[in-house]
Write a structure and sequence with these properties.
- This protein has one domain.
- The protein is mostly helical and 184 residues long.
- It has six helices and three strands; from the N terminus they run H-E-E-E-H-H-H-H-H.
- The chain has a three-stranded mixed β-sheet with strand order 1-3-2.
- The two termini are 22 Å apart.
- The protein is globular, with a radius of gyration of 18 Å.
């Protein structure tokens, strides 16, 4: 019983709503962080694309890395050049995306969800460079060796806990004969 995007939203809310007045929301045409101008009435929103699981994990990674000042700005005040980037723009994109994608990969591992590196440049058919893939992997190893940022550690731990709980309650795990792989 795999997690879905609504599970990601619920875990995010359980972990961060009370302390940060922030929610994870699917259904966006494009991913976007929207700080609230009235936090007591409307929460800050981390919006992910449609109901895409990977998009939700990626946007949470950005939120976990953004400091308090950045979380006061729409889309954290980050530079973003949309799909159709030139090779130079793509290289700049890859420089700023290594850490968020590494964190997304760690979250994916916690959910037992396959991580895919993203060049996010579909119009030109650009794939991630070998250098970018190596940098994301290096950042992942750094996070594992030195520890995750506090909010990321909380989210990763809760995702892993829920994934284990789901796996343990799966009828095929409890009774291997139900999976078709066990003795009949």
């Amino acid at each position: 019983m795999k997690l879905d995007s609504t599970d990601l939203e619920r875990v995010f809310g359980d972990c961060f709503f009370a302390a940060s007045d922030t929610v994870l929301v699917g259904g966006g045409a494009e991913p976007l962080y929207l700080p609230s101008d009235e936090p007591l009435r409307h929460p800050h929103r981390v919006v992910y694309r449609a109901d895409y699981f990977a998009s939700a994990l990626h946007e949470v990674a950005h939120w976990c890395l953004a400091g308090a000042e950045r979380r006061t700005r729409e889309d954290y005040g980050y530079w973003y050049c949309p799909d159709g980037r030139s090779p130079e723009e793509q290289a700049a994109f890859e420089r700023v995306e290594a850490r968020p994608q590494a964190l997304e990969w760690i979250f994916s591992d916690a959910c037992e969800f396959e991580f895919h590196l993203s060049a996010d440049n579909l119009t030109l058919g650009v794939e991630s460079s070998i250098r970018f893939g190596s940098e994301v992997e290096l950042e992942k190893k750094r996070f594992i060796a030195t520890g995750l940022p506090e909010r990321a550690a909380v989210y990763e731990e809760e995702l892993a806990r829920l994934t284990r709980a789901r796996r343990c309650s799966d009828p095929a795990v409890l009774d291997p004969s139900r999976s078709g792989n066990g003795p009949a």
